[in-house]
Amino acid sequence: MTLVSLFPLIVFAMGAVGMDGVAEQIRTFTYTDPVSGSSVECDRCPPGTYLRARCTSTAKSVCVPCPSGSFTELWNSIAKCLRCGVCGHYEVVRTACSADSDLQCECNQGYYYKKSSGMCHRHRQCPSGQEVLTKGGADEDTTCHSCPIGTYSDTASAHQNCTQHKRCDAPELQLVLKGSTWHDSVCKKREELESRDGGDYLKEILPAFFVHQKMCIRRLRQIVHKLRSEDGKKQRSSGLNLSALHVQINTWVASATANQIRQLPAILTKTGANSAGERLLNKLKKIDSNLSQISLDALGTKVDVIVMSE
C-alpha cells in the first residue's frame, strides 16, 4: 500500500537513480524563472512539508508543513502532500500516519499477509485427524501434518495439537473400538457387559465423525431433516448454518437410543452420503465384533473358573 501511494512522490521528488538502482534524493532542482528568464536552482522541501512557492533569483523556496491526514516521506518539490492511506480488509493500523510517513498496516490477529494476492488471509485450520506443525505468523500460514500413531484430533483448529488415545488397559476396562487419527479409543467397563449395545458405544464417536466427514451444508440439512427427536417431530434444518447443524446433530445423538443410532448409517445412505454411511457402518461392525469377542472371552473365563473349582 505504501509503495503504491508514494509513486507520484517518487516521480516528482527523486532527482536521480544510482547505478545500483537505489533512488538518490537530490535536495535541489532547477527551473527557469519566468520573470528574469534565467535558470534558478531551488531547494526542495524536506519530508513532512511541501512546496508552496518556488524560489526566485531573490527569494528561497517556501515550504510549509503537511496538513493533518497527509504526508511526504522524501525531499520533494510537489505542490501538496500525499493523502494518508487506509488499511485494507482484515488489516489494522500498526503505525499511524504522520507528517513525514504514511501509516503502516498489519494483518489482524489470526491472519497473515500473502504476497501473491497482496491481501491478508485467515490462518488455515488443521482439519480433524491433523495437528499444527507450525503456527501461522504475520507473513506465513499455518502448516499441518497427520496425527502420529496413538494420537488423535477431533476438531479443526489453527492451534491445537493431537491428543494421546485413551488407555483401556486398566483391569476394569475393555477396548471396544481402537482410536484413529480423528477419534479417541472407546473403552467399556466390565460391569456393562450385558447392559449396553454397540450403538451406545458408536454414539461416543459421532460428534467427531460428522466433523471429520466435512459434509456440505446441503447434505447436513438433509440429514438433520430426517433425524427424529424423542417426541417424533422432525428436526428443523432450513436456514441453519454449519455450526448450528452440528449442534442439532449432537443434540439428537445425545438423546438417541442405541437402536436409533444403529439406523444412522442407513439414514446417511438415504441422503446420498453413501461413503459416510459405509464408514459409519464399518465402525459399528467393528464395535459389535469386539463386544462379541469380549463376551466370549468372559464366558471362557467363567467356564475355566467353574472347572477349576470342581
From TrEMBL:
Q: Where in the cell is it found?
A: Secreted
* Keyword list, A-Z: Apoptosis, Disulfide bond, Glycoprotein, Repeat, Secreted, Signal
Which residues form each disulfide bond in the chain? C66-C81, C84-C97, C87-C105
Q: Span of the secretion signal?
A: 1-18
Q: What's one GO-annotated cellular component?
A: extracellular region
According to the entry, every stretch annotated as the TNFR-Cys domain falls at 65-105
Q: Could you identify this protein by its name?
A: Tumor necrosis factor receptor superfamily member 6B-like isoform X1
- Organism this protein belongs to: Cottoperca gobio
Its gene name is LOC115015822
